[in-house]
């Protein structure tokens, strides 16, 4: 069995940074602050829909691109403060099969950042976003990721922290375990009917089962 890991909010503890960067994006469009709890209850992809809900009005492509640029500018400014999620290294070591990493963060930033934690050798493949603007759904990226690995979804399980991770896994017929400490409220995750873990160690155990 092959394990596909999500990065942001799953292996990387970047929640506080993400809230700060999200609020910077909202401020750029005259929007309000969101708290961490509000974000976890409302966050979804496509992110433009999440932004539109919080702003209370539609967000067109040009405005989303500007907000996305502001988000990533603030995110990268504070990136050095981020650390791995608790138990990340141990969870990676506990998996007995092959592993890969698929993130919706920009590929050129992702790869050296993962390497900086000494984790690159854990993964047979690392893929990030190669488009200029992010915010879309993960499913099509997972399809390409598994195609590059020549793997069938039925032979894989994904560990992530969002409903989008769950949808992506379902789109390729893969198993999925969700972690409750990331970007999405645990009750929303539990409503999917998928297994939900409070720790990475438990997530790996559930994925193994």
What distinguishing features does this structure have?
209 residues, six-stranded parallel sheet, Rossmann fold, 2 domains, single chain, 8 strands, two-stranded antiparallel sheet
Describe the overall structure.
By secondary structure, the protein is an alpha/beta fold. The chain has two domains: 2-13 and 83-208, 3-Layer(aba) Sandwich (Rossmann fold); 15-80. 47% of the residues lie in helices and 15% in strands. The chain has ten helices and eight strands. It has helices spanning 15-28, 36-42, 47-55, 61-77, 88-94, 107-116, 139-149, 163-172, 186-190, 200-208; strands at 2-5, 12-13, 83-84, 99-106, 126-129, 156-160, 175-179, 196-197. The protein has a six-stranded parallel sheet. It has a two-stranded antiparallel sheet with strand order 2-3. It is globular, with a radius of gyration of 16 Å. The termini are close together. The mean pLDDT is 95.
């Amino acid at each position: 069995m092959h394990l596909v890991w999500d990065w942001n909010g799953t292996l990387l503890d970047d929640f506080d940074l993400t809230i700060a960067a999200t609020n910077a994006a909202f401020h750029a469009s005259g929007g309000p602050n969101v708290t961490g709890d509000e974000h976890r209850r409302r966050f979804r992809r496509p992110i433009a829909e999440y932004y539109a809900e919080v702003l209370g009005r539609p967000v067109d492509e040009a405005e989303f691109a500007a907000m996305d640029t502001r988000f990533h500018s603030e995110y990268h400014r504070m990136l050095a403060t981020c650390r791995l999620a608790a138990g990340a290294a141990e969870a990676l070591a506990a998996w007995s099969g092959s592993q890969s990493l698929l993130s919706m963060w920009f590929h050129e930033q992702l790869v050296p950042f993962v390497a900086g934690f000494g984790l690159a050798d854990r993964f047979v493949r690392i893929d990030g976003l190669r488009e200029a603007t992010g915010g879309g759904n993960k499913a099509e990226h997972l399809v390409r990721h598994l195609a590059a690995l020549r793997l069938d979804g039925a032979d894989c399980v994904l560990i992530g922290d969002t409903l989008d991770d769950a949808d992506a896994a379902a789109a390729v017929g893969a198993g999925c375990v969700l972690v409750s400490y990331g970007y999405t409220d645990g009750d929303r995750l539990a409503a999917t009917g998928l297994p939900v873990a409070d720790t990475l160690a438990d997530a790996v155990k559930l994925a193994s089962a």
